[in-house]
LytR family transcriptional regulator (Amycolatopsis albispora), 478 residues
Amino acid sequence: MTDQMEPVDDATKYRRKIDNTLARFSAAHDEMAAEEAKRKERLSRLTAAPVKLIEQTRTKLQRVVHPGEGAAKPRPHPLAHLRAGSAEETEAEPDENSAAPQTRLQEKKQRRVDRSAKAGRITAIVLACLMFVLSAGGWGMKTWFNSKFNQIAALDENSADIQNAAGQLGDENFLIAGSDTRAGAEAEEGVGTADSVGGARSDSLMIAHIPADRKRVIVVGFPRDLEVNRPDCKRWDSNTGQYLEEVVPAKSKAKLNEAYAIGGPQCTTKQIQQLTGMKINHFVGIDFHGFKDMINVVGGVPVHIEEPVIDDVLGVIVPQAGEQVITGDQALNFVRARHVKGDVTSDYGRIKRQQLVIGSLLKKTMSQEVLFDGGKLTGFVNAFTAATFGDNLGVDQMLTLAQSMKGLNPDTVKFITVPTTGEANNRGNEVLLEKKSKELFAALIENGPLPDEKAAAPPPSTPSSTGTTQQGQAKPGN
């Protein structure tokens, strides 16, 4: 260091300049050291608070889950290495069990935080247990429901009759067959007995087509007397639900319902896929005798009647027009009647009534009145499974069908009948309109607009006296 009293020459000035520079560096170093110490102190406080809260939370959670087991053994501080580093350059912090006293406001805030944390932990535990119980219960209920469905082989999803199978990927096609079996029928129903009317035929046959995008549902009904070329089929015993080894040869100019009477669900599916080219991936068979039990369980179904329904054989079925709720035997006669006054043919009016009741039943089943009533829902499932059978049929599949149709919105659910001449031929059969039916089923397979939904071509433009076309555009100059 230089003495300020020594003679000032160039060498002295140079040494003093060096001394001043070193002094400034030393001061800057001291300031930086102080700042670093403060930073480490702040970091220590910030890291200590969360760790303390973690330790408190862990201990309280142990008390909630394992009450009475005493305090947990102390564990090494998770950030001990940081705290050790700061302790070397700052004063030692108080032990966490001897923290500085808090103000009343701080104590009140801490108690509120502790209560909220405890409530949150308890809620999380309860919710986790509840979700587990509900999941297990829901799985068990679904398994129980599925076990009650009667499965009978019906499908052939690799049939050569299926057209554009790749294009139908994701579509759900339900083939719904209503059986006219008299097994279990009561005398007051007036439909005969199993002895007087043996076997079973497809009294009602329809396809519910739900495209992959699930934006709409098309239900196509088939007349039971539609004239078809029946394929060869294994014989089916409707009493046992078993297929026999006997093969019944194919037959031309047969009635559609013969397929079910001879070969059951398999032959019916084979016939429909041959007729439509559609891939049937669900079969639902319904015994109409049990059909009335489903309707009774849900308290009847609402239907809109254009005019009173009076049948020449069954008598007065629905005496008044308008909105009606039909139940039990009345509903059964409503869907079975084939000689109703005012029907153009014996089948067309019946198909519309069947579609109306089935759609209304699905809508009623999906309503809060049934879904939130354990007794009604269980009763419906029991009645449904007792009266139905099928292939690829269960809770998930039926929910898909029911949810798609529950609103019965005309914009999303459309009921149609396969196009025929509308008159019986000399064999008493309905005759299919080949060209129109091919257009219909092609539209369903391709998920395009139906034939009656295609916009008509605009009229050709014609010159007018004002020099413009009918579309309002000026004619080009010559």
Q: What stands out?
A: Residues 64-75, 77-98, 182-199, 464-478 have pLDDT under 50 and may be disordered. The radius of gyration is 41 Å. Residues 10-65 form the longest helix (56 residues). The CA atoms of residues 38 and 150 lie 78 Å apart.
